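step 3/5: co-fold with nicotinamide-adenine-dinucleotide
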Amino acid sequence: MTLANDYGVLNEGARALLYRRTGMFLDGAFRDAASGKTMDVVDPTTGGVVANVPDAGAGDVELAVRSAHRAFRDTAWSGLRPHEREAVIMKLAALVEAEADALAQVETVNSGKLIGNTRAFDADFSVHVLRQAAGWATRLSGRMMELAVPYMPNARFTGSTHPRPVGVIGAIVPWNVPLCMAVFKLAPALATGCTIVIKPAERTPLTALRLAELCIEAGIPAGVVNVVTGGATAGQALVEHPLVDKISFTGSTAVGRRIGASAGERLIPFCLELGGKSPVVIAPDADLEMAISGAAWAILGNHGQNCCAGSRLFVHENHFDQVVEGIAQIAASLVIGPGLDPASTMGPMISHEHRDRVVSYVEQARKDGASLITGGDPLSDDGAYMHPAVIVGAGDGSPVAQEEIFGPVLTAFRFDDLDDVMPRVNNSQYGLGASIWTRDMATADRFADKVEAGTVWINNHNTLDCAMPFGGWKQSGFGQELGEEGIRAHLKTQARIVRH
Ligand code: NAD
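step 4/5: write tokens
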């Protein structure tokens, strides 16, 4: 298990995390799958194996859920006073921060993403999310009220509401922002006194395993945080386990739909953060320099492997040629190479299989009569690299206009009137994010009022903040993470009525 080239950047911490033998993290310790089966963890830059982890089956998930259930029942965590939980989560944040370089490097080796990206999002943003959630632990109070009880005029009642942790959270995570997505689920669970079983994506389990170890170091009792490594079998066993009290899933719409149905069957709450096909609209009065760069990075960020990727671009006809050419120039000028190489501005796709799927969309669009302005072809290299593609002339109903490609493929359309184009902007099963580039706030508000999306960005795209709830409309999801909404979604309310 070696890296072809680590560019001299891997620190001792990252080396230790990459080459050690771990296991699933259950009840405070690493262990193998009962079957003894393992999965290879691969560096998409070279295709080389960098670690092995257990391939969990239903029996292993059973142990993990029972561990989380026990930990929830014995109240060593859920029974802590809020300021004590806050202090422990702050300690966890500090431990993640202290290892940010190593965690980012491991994430880059495992996912192919640029080191700047894994540092900013998987490592640093995770620290912010943990700190934000820690603060919520002491702010989750209920309400007290005088009650009317109109049919008992001679009695006096008071009522109070009491927020209580939901219980055991079953958390399922995708591969595109592995540590950060795990923390999106872990942080509110910890803040509210829940316990959790996290199943990272089969391709990117390494940082979640380290996170679970750091939880113990921070003082979180064994069993509160468990990580099962595995694929769909483990995920399904987690979703269907009767002792799981809430499902928190981030992944594809197809899998999310099945998970929602299963959770609905058991009448447990669920949060689904799913796919997208987000529109980017450039109005006639936009600051073009800003809009061209913004629209380019809306699709190129994280190599297009981003649920919010701005993959459908609508440009006012006055600027269409200039904008498309500007974005194509940025796309064609990227330095495509390993994520660990500081000179790279775009790394490989997560796998060859995924890269080939992305490229096949471009080929199909050309066959269907669209024009390719740049890119769309694989690089003849060991890694899962491709040139980012810009397509024009595709039909509104074509696969590149409708389906989530999850890669660096932009499909551009022209329009002449913002109000008239809105039905086309909304012509998608998805409703995750949308952006508009304009100097006029009235135009921005008109757009925001009409667009069907959980998040609207004005003169920016893909910006997330811990304080803002994030979630999709339509087939992009159900429920929200982050913000007050994301925290409160891990609570159930008990109402108490006292007769005086
Ligand atoms: P995926 O749905 O294939 O897998 C996601 C996770 O679900 C993985 O851990 C996988 O092992 C697990 N899984 C697969 N089948 C399962 C089943 N039957 N039961 C339970 N778990 C199962 O998605 P992916 O390819 O890993 O990730 C890409 C997708 O995630 C894209 O659609 C992207 O838009 C979406 N995503 C959404 C957000 C968001 O916040 N809305 C963020 C990141 C990624």
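step 5/5: annotate
The pocket of nicotinamide-adenine-dinucleotide is lined by residues 172-176, 199, 201-202, 231-232, 235-236, 239, 250-252, 255, 258-259, 273-276, 307, 404, 406, 432, 472, 477 (CB under 6 Å).
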